[in-house]
Structures are given as structure tokens and as C-alpha cells.
Amino acid sequence: MEASAEVSAPVASRRRGEALRRAIFDAVIEQLGSVGYAKLSTNRVAAAAGTGKAALYRRWSNKEELVRDALLDLLPEPPRVDLSASLRDGLLAQLTYLNSTLFDSKGAAFQAFAAAAADQPSELRAFLHETVSVPCQERIAELLRLHTAVPDKDRPLIAAAGPAMLMYHCMSGSLKSTDTQIEAVVDGLLLPLCRER
Amino acid sequence: MEASAEVSAPVASRRRGEALRRAIFDAVIEQLGSVGYAKLSTNRVAAAAGTGKAALYRRWSNKEELVRDALLDLLPEPPRVDLSASLRDGLLAQLTYLNSTLFDSKGAAFQAFAAAAADQPSELRAFLHETVSVPCQERIAELLRLHTAVPDKDRPLIAAAGPAMLMYHCMSGSLKSTDTQIEAVVDGLLLPLCRER
DNA sequence: AATTTAGTGAACCAGTTGGTTCACTATAGG
DNA sequence: CCTATAGTGAACCAACTGGTTCACTAAATT
Fold it and tell me: Which residues cross the membrane (chains A, B) (predicted)?
């Protein structure tokens, strides 16, 4: 008898709490990737999440806060510096992380990055720089410190070159860099620079 | 008597032809620099040019065409490769050109570049790439060919590094690179890369 | 001088936006 | 079961957009 009552219980139809938040974040990221940041609208995010704007504004006070939180949720922590890995492998790992971070999810994070750069001044730009670029550069600089004789004063410039190349790649109209292209940056640019000292 | 008639002749009040076109282009560039590409509107461009939207649409069929033409008018031709200059001076000249091109006029061209990168797919992005980045890279590659032993297959990567660094610089929230920073890219990155071979 | 051309300013249109409010109600918690 | 909470869907608002049209008229051309 109880088994029969369970079978016929109505299926929950409203998402609440974390489930709805998940759906909203997914919608933001999807919209960033498909229409870009400038054309991302709360109307469309709500529709894509299968909810209404009122639900968005219950949790976030404005659009920028929503997008920032969705990106914060999306962006992975940069990989730790693996002490046992070679310099080359370490550099490959950092640039592969950055490549994936920026360009996965149809380039949602890169879209946000470029849009932020085109919007002055921008908290979002600062946020993305501090959350993505700076950690990546710092880890690359750490690898240089551990494995090379590059002087302190030269490290920031070299550390920035990898990320710079990946972003330039996409600003020039290409898509996500391939593994081969990342290897070319490491082997053809970063490693030679380290050996030069 | 004739001198007297000249003094009292009415001053022309409506701009026509090239004068109005100039004013419109100036307004576009100013708006790109101040509100960025996403927020640039035909309403505001017309107002800033001291004219009406009808005058814009008489000449350009849409907003994108207007912006493209204004940028085409703004962007200077990259400096020719000076055969008598040293490699360092040649590289400095090309990167200084790129820096000025992208970041003068309150960064109007860079604004457009970043916005285009955030808008997929984009004719504007292709246009800017072909008009700005590609010529600069080609001239840098030519300098490498003239002055260094860098093999053919390595030149594109190295040639891209300078422009990449300048753009990354601004995407990270900084403004136009200083001469010192450009020199650092040349002396700390490009020249060492060339010597490595 | 008469005619043509292009500039002006205003009005118009449909569409969209970020943000707000509301009545209703599913859902969770007591 | 009752109460509180949060989700839903709709409606609303002022503002703004790209693009269009129009009557008038300054300016150029014939």
C-alpha cells in the first residue's frame, strides 16, 4: 500500500536553492558563449534558465554581479606548481590551464575578458585579471625561479608572454589554441628566452 | 564699398560634404574612446557631431559600416621598414606605431578591437586584424629576415610576440604602454629570441 | 534666378533593456 | 496542518536603440 502511494506521488516541478542557482549560472555561461557579453541580457538569461527575472534579482542586485558570480563559479583554480615536473611540462600545464579556462564553454570567459577590456573602467576586467591572468603568471614566474637562471627583474615580462600569446591568438580571430600551438609557444618562445640568460 | 559688403556677408552655418564627414568621424572616434564600442550609439554620434541621424544614414547604411569607415580613416599606415635602421630601432618603430595606433584617441581603436573580439563572428575583427595586426607582424617578420638568422618557420611566432604583449598589457587593465615598456619588450623579449638562433 | 542637392530637426516605429512589483502557489520547515 | 519562504509568470516602467520618414531650407549647381 505504501509502495503504491510512492509511485503515484507528484514529481517536484519547481527548482529551488542550489538547483536553480546552477541552472542560472549555466544559462549565463551559455549566453556569454553564444551571444557574447554585450548582448547578454537578463531577459535571455532568465529564459534560458527556465525562470523569470524576479528570481535573478532575488539573488543578485544587478547584471554585472550575476555575471561575475557565474564566472567565479566557472573558473577553475590554476594548477599548482608540480615540483617534480620539468620546466617544459610545468609551462605546458599552466598554458593549457589558461587556454581551457578562457576558451572552454564556447569561450565564455574570453568573451567576458574582451568585453571587459572594451569597457572602461571595469571592475569585471580587474576581477578577471586577478582571478585568471595574475595567478597564471605567478605560477609561470615560480617555475622560472625554480628551474632557470632568469633574474628577478626579467621574470614578469617572460611570465606574461605565454598568456599574451594565447589571448592575442584569439583576438586575431582564431579559436582556442591547439596543443600543438601551445607547445610552439613554450618551445619556440618561452624556453629559448630562459636559455638566453 | 566692396570691402564693406564682404565684412557683412553671412557666415555659412551648415557644414556640407567633407566638413560634415570629418565631424562625424571625429565624433565616432571620440565616442569609441569615451563610452566604448558596445555603448556607442548613432544617437550619440549624431549629437556629438552636431548633426542628426538622417545625415548619418544618408552616407552609411548601418552603424557598423560607419564605425568601420571612421576607423579606416583613423588608422595610419604602418611605417615602412627602414633598410638603414638597426634591428632594434626597426622593432621599436613598429611597436611604437602599433602602440600609438591602438591607444591614441583615448584607445578608440583598441576599444573597437576588444569589442570585436567579444563579438563572434565579426567582420570588424577581421578588418582590424588585417588592417592593423597583420601589417605590423609582416614588417616585424621582414626585419627579422633582414637582420637575423631566425628560420622562416619561427618568424611568425616571434613576430606576433610584440603585438601580443602590447595588447595583453591593456587587457590587463593598464593603459598605453610607455616607451620604456616597449623597449623592455624589444630588449627583454624580441632581441633575445633572435639571438637564440 | 531657378532648380537640385544635401543638411536639419523632429517625429515616428517596433523592439529591447535593466530593474520593479504583484498575486498566486509550490515547497520546506516547524 | 499551518506558516514562512522562495519560485513563477506576468505586467509594468522609463529609457534607449537602429533605422525611417518628412517638411523645411541652406547651399551648390545650372
Answer: none
